[in-house]
Amino acid sequence: MRDGLGRPQTVLLLGGTSGIGQAIAGELLPYAGNLILAGRDPEALAEAAQRLDGPRRQVSTLHYDALAPAAATVDALATAAARYGDLDVIVLAVGVLAEEAALTDTPAVEQAMRTNLLGPLLAVHAAAARLRAQGHGTLVVLSSVAAVRTRDGLFSYGVAKSALDVYARRIGRSLRGSGARVLVVRPGHVRTRMTAGLPEPPFTTGPAEVAARVGRALNGRASLIHSPAVLRPVTTVLRMLPTALYRRLQEGTTS
């Protein structure tokens, strides 16, 4: 449960090795609380837990595989709740950034879509069900500005984010009146391990900036935010551009 000042006491991070996810967890639990890092790589999770641990913060790890059947996700959520009680905030930060040229065969496409779409989509459904049953809590879903208009070089990634974005916002509407809530976050290009070496487009930020914006949004009533905020009008304009002009713009930013 949240404390007397409305601060979350327990945060579950699905995708526990995500740089943005960890920054959000640190923003939400600056001094004390329970943080559960859920992911596939036990060594990476242990390293992250050591970095995030603190005198009044309890950090633990939990096995979670977005590629596993839906029942495994439900079990992971139940295990997390069994440790600390109600989950105040669940952050869904699962995904991989795969250039379209790297998706050379059907199994590669399947792997990418299961990681970026099917697994996260099932996690949204399972997490929303748990928060609805609790009668409170927030699910933070990391989408992307790529959900607004896909790029040719990241077509599969954009399609997956677009579908996840729509699904999460729809689930959020279904939670109205339940006490639970969904916050969809659309970051732009963020400096993380996943984007290391890639060209930095305008409005590039770092995980801390995204986390700060999420922290502020959780104190309000927004259901959808962009990070940085200027990307909201920018992506609105990009969505309306004719295809030929949009392609020329992409070519200009990647040349």
Description of the structure:
Helix content is 47%, strand content 17%. It is an alpha/beta fold. Strands 3-2-1-4-5-6-7 form a seven-stranded parallel beta sheet, sandwiched between helices. α1 (19-28) packs across α6, α3 (70-84) packs parallel to α4 (106-134) and α4 (106-134) packs parallel to α5. The longest helix has 29 residues, at 106-134. The radius of gyration is 18 Å and the shape is globular.
**Content of β-strand:** 15-25%
The count of DSSP E runs of length 2 or more, i.e. the number of strands, is: 7
Strand line-up across the major sheet: 3-2-1-4-5-6-7
Structural class: alpha/beta
Instruction: Give the N-to-C terminal Cα separation.
Output: 50 Å
Query: Element order, helices and strands?
Result: EHEHEHEHEHEHEHH
How would you describe the shape?
Answer: globular
Unreliable stretches covering 5 or more consecutive residues = none
Instruction: Specify Rg, calculated over alpha carbons.
Output: 18 Å
Tell me the major beta sheet.
7 strands, parallel
Helical stretch count?
Answer: 8
Average pLDDT figure = 91
- What proportion of the residues is helical, as a percent range? 40-55%
